[in-house]
Amino acid sequence: MRGITILGATGSIGQNTVDLIARRPDDFTVEALTGGHNIDLLAKDARRLGAKLAVTAHDNRYADLKAALSGTGIEVAAGQGALMEAAQRPADWVMSAIVGAAGLAPGLAALERGAALALANKETLVCAGPLVLETAARSGADLIPVDSEHSALYQALLGEDMASVERVIITASGGAFRDWPLEQLAAATPEQASTHPNWAMGQRITVDSASMFNKALELIEAKEFFHLDPEIIEVVVHRESLVHALVGHIDGGILAHLGPADMRHAIGYALNWPARVDLPVERLNLAKIGQLTFEAPDPARYPALAIAQRVMRRGGLSGAAMNAAKEVALDAFLDSRIGFMQMAEVVTRVLDRIETDSGLIDAAFDLDNVLSMDQIARAYAWENVNSGVAAVT
Ligand SMILES: NC(=O)C1=CN([C@@H]2O[C@H](COP(=O)(O)OP(=O)(O)OC[C@H]3O[C@@H](n4cnc5c(N)ncnc54)[C@H](OP(=O)(O)O)[C@@H]3O)[C@@H](O)[C@H]2O)C=CC1
Ligand SMILES: CC(=O)[C@@H](O)[C@H](O)COP(=O)(O)O
Ligand SMILES: [Mn+2]
């Protein structure tokens, strides 16, 4: 029996993980499940999986969770401290599926304790790549990617000599607005941006897919995870979301990873790694699919890609700054305070300021410095939003 903890169990990745665990009750015990506001779902899954501990990230939801699990014997806790304790429980495998920079500290805590960490939370590597890899190396913990492109790269790179890799290509669906006239993007609403052509995911990553900030984060995630030179990482728009990533070798050969647009493949791969097991996902019928298409991304439509290049070249704590500014810009967009295309403007202004007036950008990669950079960038981004420079017109 393997002990499992799911951080962010009530979200899209969390629920796909719960689905896989629930199918094999004889193979897994559940140490802890964590969630946020969705107390009913957290309590339901804690009961269903027989979790030892259920944690809500919000102190003020403790009484609700306690009531929902009364009489079950399941331990209940709330707040940031409880989240960290859940991450450090003696699980063999921990899923990191909290959304945003909030997932960084709990994921690191699990790695420090030596649990295998299945990493869906891409912000972890964007904000603190060197710290995360160094923590895993020190504790001996396995770090297994879950983001579909990175799981695909991991699988395509198995047994390959990195010295023969000359290109790494990650695919992008193009998001909700890929067929919109460019001039209409400025007026896109949060509701319109919250749909995805192929994947069912949480709202934040769905909007990030529309702006391609998701792909921007993924470029940095790939650079950090696989120690890549940014110059060899490419993005190609692939409308079908069936080819997730490709690896090009110096002899001209390209290895591609294909799979259904169902995160249970990448989650199941990480759960069973290094073994492969039968997973409850659709098998692709290539003859029925007929054609796979590829296009170059338009830089005017997707300014986030150039921002990622800038961050990869600048290095240091600029990834933490970019992510924090993006999270604020996304909140402001979802609240209709700035327009869709202004998210990239806010992030650019924050990076301009961080690069000139904050010595912190070249500080050592420790958690305190990363979190300080996160806070400074958030403050700068809110100043920018509140100043009206990026207001919806
Ligand atoms: N969804 C997908 O298919 C993919 C997601 N990812 C990445 O995985 C991560 C999770 O994404 P997704 O599942 O879509 O997100 P969701 O929004 O669906 O779920 C987020 C989870 O985190 C919890 N949560 C939210 N805020 C906090 C916080 N401040 N502290 C603690 N817990 C919190 C939520 O609780 P509650 O809902 O109860 O409030 C929920 O359990 C993201 O980093 C995303 O980029 C990567 C590849 C694919
Ligand atoms: C499923 C997954 O990994 C997402 O990150 C996906 O990549 C989003 O789709 P986009 O290609 O539109 O960003
Ligand atoms: Mn992805």
UniProtKB/TrEMBL annotation:
Cofactor(s) the protein requires to work: Mg(2+); Mn(2+)
Any one Gene Ontology BP term: isopentenyl diphosphate biosynthetic process, methylerythritol 4-phosphate pathway involved in terpenoid biosynthetic process
Keyword RNA-binding: no
Residues where Mn(2+) binds: 147, 149, 218
Keyword Oxidoreductase in annotation: yes
Domain 1-deoxy-D-xylulose 5-phosphate reductoisomerase N-terminal, first and last residues per copy: 4-129
Catalysed reaction equations from the record: 2-C-methyl-D-erythritol 4-phosphate + NADP(+) = 1-deoxy-D-xylulose 5-phosphate + NADPH + H(+)
Residues in 1-deoxy-D-xylulose 5-phosphate reductoisomerase C-terminal domain copies: 143-226
Stored InterPro entries: DXP_reductoisomerase, DXP_reductoisomerase_C, DXP_reductoisomerase_N, DXPR_C, DXPR_C_sf, NAD(P)-bd_dom_sf
Residue ranges crossing the lipid bilayer per the database entry: none
Positions contributing to NADPH binding: 10-13, 36, 38, 121, 123, 202
Pfam families: DXP_redisom_C, DXP_reductoisom, DXPR_C
Gene Ontology molecular function terms on file: 1-deoxy-D-xylulose-5-phosphate reductoisomerase activity; isomerase activity; manganese ion binding; NADPH binding
Keyword list, A-Z: Isomerase, Isoprene biosynthesis, Magnesium, Manganese, Metal-binding, NADP, Oxidoreductase
Enzyme Commission number(s): 1.1.1.267
Ligand binding (1-deoxy-D-xylulose 5-phosphate): 122, 148-149, 173, 196, 209, 214-215, 218
Pathway assignment: Isoprenoid biosynthesis; isopentenyl diphosphate biosynthesis via DXP pathway; isopentenyl diphosphate from 1-deoxy-D-xylulose 5-phosphate: step 1/6
DXP reductoisomerase C-terminal domain sequence ranges: 258-379
Function: Catalyzes the NADPH-dependent rearrangement and reduction of 1-deoxy-D-xylulose-5-phosphate (DXP) to 2-C-methyl-D-erythritol 4-phosphate (MEP).
NCBIfam families: Dxr
PANTHER family, per database record: 1-DEOXY-D-XYLULOSE 5-PHOSPHATE REDUCTOISOMERASE (PTHR30525), 1-DEOXY-D-XYLULOSE 5-PHOSPHATE REDUCTOISOMERASE, CHLOROPLASTIC (PTHR30525:SF0)
Homology family: Belongs to the DXR family.
Record's protein name: 1-deoxy-D-xylulose 5-phosphate reductoisomerase
Lineage, top ranks: Bacteria, Pseudomonadati, Pseudomonadota, Alphaproteobacteria, Rhodobacterales
